[in-house]
Amino acid sequence: MQIKNFIDILTGLGAMITILLIVYKDMIMGFVAGIQLSANKMLFVGDWIASPKDGADGTVIDIGLTTVKVQNWDRTITTIPTYKLTSESFTNWRGMELSGGRRIKRHVNVDIESIHFLSEQEIETFKKIRLISDYIEEKVKIIREVNANETEHFNQRRLTNIGTFRKYVENYLRESGFVNLDMMFVVRQLQPTEKGIPIEVYMFSKVKEFAIYEQIQADIFDHILAIVPTFNLRLFQEPSGHNFSKYGEVREEK
């Protein structure tokens, strides 16, 4: 009889615990998640986080037992269950804010058909560009020494317009004052694609404030896009209605 009563008590306790776990599931999971976030220093009030799945991109304004509140840049408030920040991925920009710069990683696509070796006339023209004049002089000297015993042009080393353009962009950025030169900085050529050859700028801006950072990034690429034709290169872009209308006009003239 006593054993039966004991079993009944255990059954009742089990049922009660199950009900409590269901009712307070979010609170319990949130409590455990809060300990994890705090112990691992994953999140603090004031951090800028981005969680696209939850529609959050802004500053953490409150870390509660069951929820985390994020004020987005459009001033709306997104509430995220605390446990989701330990079970799913999110981006915390605190590392960027504490570092010496904010990354700029963007490229332009160069039309492959516009790439060629530099002619003597182009070399003389590019020597007049202050940012690359020393580079051109040095390269021409080295190439002449290397090619001294080569008579066939296809065996000779030669300068290209795309390589010269990359060096110009690198020197322009070095002199601009925008770049934190103590961090990673490179102007590189990526794998060619059906949209041309990407020339990528990978750098860190000294300024991290969002609005000024975006303005700096725009100024840099305004200049890069505008200077491309100087090196007899073309940027790649998909044909637009304007292109097709011009093509139609040419055909009509013929």
From TrEMBL:
It is found in: Membrane. Its main location: membrane. Residues 26-94 form the Mechanosensitive ion channel MscS domain. GO terms for biological process: cellular response to osmotic stress. GO terms for cellular component: plasma membrane. It holds the Pfam family MS_channel_2nd. One of its GO terms (molecular function) is mechanosensitive monoatomic ion channel activity. InterPro entries: LSM_dom_sf, MscS_beta-dom_sf, MscS_channel_2nd, YbdG. The chain crosses the membrane at residues 6-24. The keyword Cell membrane does not apply. Signal peptide: none annotated. Keywords: Membrane, Transmembrane, Transmembrane helix. PANTHER family: MINICONDUCTANCE MECHANOSENSITIVE CHANNEL YBDG (PTHR30414). This is Mechanosensitive ion channel MscS domain-containing protein. It comes from Capnocytophaga felis. The lineage of its organism: Bacteria, Pseudomonadati, Bacteroidota, Flavobacteriia, Flavobacteriales.
